Amino acid sequence: MLYPQQNKFRSVFDLSGYWNIKPDPKNQGAQEKWFNSKLTGDVYSIAIPGSWNEQLEEQGLKNYVGKAWHETFFKIPAVIQDTNKIWLRIGAADHKATVWLNGEFVGEHVGGYMPFELDLTNSLAKSGEENHLIICVDSELSMHTLPQDVDPNSPMYNTKAYERRHLFPATRFDFFPYGGLTRSVNIVATPNDYISNITINSSLEGDVSVEIDATSIDKVRVQIFDAEGQEVSNGTTEQVNKVNLKVANVQLWSPSDPYLYEARVSLLDGDQVLDMYDEAFGIREIKVEGGEIFLNGEKLFLSGFGKHEEYPVVGRGQFRAGYIKDHELMRWIGANSYRTSHYPYDEEMMRLGDRLGFLIINEVAAVSLGFWSDNLNELQPLMKNHKKAIQELINRDKNHPSVISWSITNEPNLWAEEFYQNKASSLYFKEIYDFTKTLDDTRPIMSISMAAYKEDDVVLESCDIIGINRYYGWYTKPVDLEEAAKDLNRELEATFNKYGKPIMITEFGADTVEGLHATTAQMFTEEFQTAFIFKYLEVIEDKDYVFGAHVWNFADFLTPQHFRRVVLNKKGVFTRDRLPKSVAFKLRDHWNSFSKINESHRPEKPKTGFLIPNIEKE
Length: 618
Ligand code: BDP
What we know:
Elements: E1 11-14, E2 17-23, E3 44-48, E4 50-51, E5 67-74, H1 78-81, E6 85-90, E7 93-94, E8 96-101, E9 104-110, E10 116-119, E11 131-138, H2 160-165, E12 180-181, E13 185-190, E14 195-202, E15 207-214, E16 219-225, E17 231-238, E18 242-246, E19 253-254, E20 257-258, E21 261-269, E22 272-281, E23 286-289, E24 292-295, E25 298-299, E26 302-306, H3 320-333, E27 337-339, H4 347-356, E28 359-363, H5 380-397, E29 403-410, H6 423-439, E30 445-449, E31 465-469, H7 481-499, E32 503-507, H8 526-541, E33 546-552, E34 557-558, E35 568-569, H9 582-592
Parallel strand pairs: 26-27, 26-33, 27-28, 28-29, 29-30, 30-31, 31-32, 32-33
Antiparallel strand pairs: 1-13, 2-3, 2-5, 4-12, 5-11, 6-10, 6-13, 7-12, 8-9, 8-11, 14-15, 15-18, 16-17, 16-21, 19-20, 21-22, 23-24, 24-25, 34-35
Helix pairs in contact: 3-4, 5-6, 7-8
Beta-D-glucopyranuronic acid is lined by residues 174, 342, 410-411, 414, 450, 469, 507, 552, 569, 571.
């Protein structure tokens, strides 16, 4: 899917602003046809993009999971409307959106965190006149969606043990279930014959293939420009949707030199240009070989974090300044990478990663999946949505050099349900893995396991690179870091011996209340977080097959209420408002001088120390 772009042939209108929202807790809207006229009754103003949970005060939306109707109005200049196709492009609606324009149903999309487009052309008001847009967003999940919901009918949720586990709002995962129109909403105008998709593949030798999807392909021209805007290659094909080109004197993309080329694709009818689109790409190679992983032929070590996409007030809503701040802090601390735990992030993050030189493990929202049967056929409704989520993610992010891996699942069976460690789940993940490979065989696939089945976890069979999340010394054997190190060490050795695949510790961390201190090992203090993280690093960094350490988490984040959380999951190295806990300074010293990180795999190094001077005036 193409990012909205404005040029000689295309226009983009931003619908961000204050919209109307009307919650529908009794599920009346569809029946009462709220889409037919202006919303009335309990209607509030809300900023879009943004989650509905933290913006409002007394409307009861803080913990609301359900339907809410969103409304706005817009006009399109007549000159544009009269000659173009007009699309609504929604960056993400968490988790289902149903859309009406001027009372007419124009489409729906199931699955949060992903952009989708709907053709509005035939439902628009007369040229230049006001349009009434209604989007019903439903944040409810089910056992078949990604992410998955808890299953209220399962006997395990009615047991005594579950009473202790119960989260409010109830989720299967440890992050807040925000709802809403969380990312940009745009009107995009394209010509009637238009380019709908571009896929770019390249080799270190400078072979570049550009594949184009369009309404009709008569003739396609591709020009490649270097970062200075000089044309370095071009080619034209007729009746074929693929152009193969050669770029001489290739300048590779890497974190230290995130060099981007641009492919300008023109759709032609004879000599007449019908549509045009510029797609940025980088030339780089990521390869797994003999238990090691390489970027552009150099051995890779990833320093960084599992993150969350959430901030105070906007919730999971788009926050461009926050995206810059997070990348800046990661650069400051010496991180070269992060994982989009536990769902795809805003495409703005991938675009920034390309430009700022970060390596991203891109994860679908298959978080703590639970299986309700050991018969693969019965798991098909979930499988279908899992595949769709992977397909949409790859379709959106395939051309980003920053994206180095697809993570197809995080910690299946977190809740230790009955049906997991068996043939059906093994076949399930094998099918997901094979499917992902058919869509993209240029990036390694990661599966991430939790501790229950250790090296025998079935999910580890279906991946190219292994991610393991471990909390020895925290959830198990609390405080005993020596024992934790032993457990971790044993398990890493056993896992590598069994699979021979590169392994990364994708999560390890300790909840930490900023300002809490102790001279002896004491959970929740800043000193314990430091001791915990550095004990893990000692084990991790000693092993050649371990290719990375991602601390859990970059920043504290909101999660459902439970007695084991004080409002937030406090495992952040930074607080929720992005202030450093003391481990941040130690990590910064360590990572910025850590010899296993190849110099070309580092984004620009921080320049000054702690006392950052103000920029000087003339
Ligand atoms: C892991 C999960 C992550 C949690 C983390 C924790 O992958 O989502 O937030 O543990 O407990 O199980 O902090």
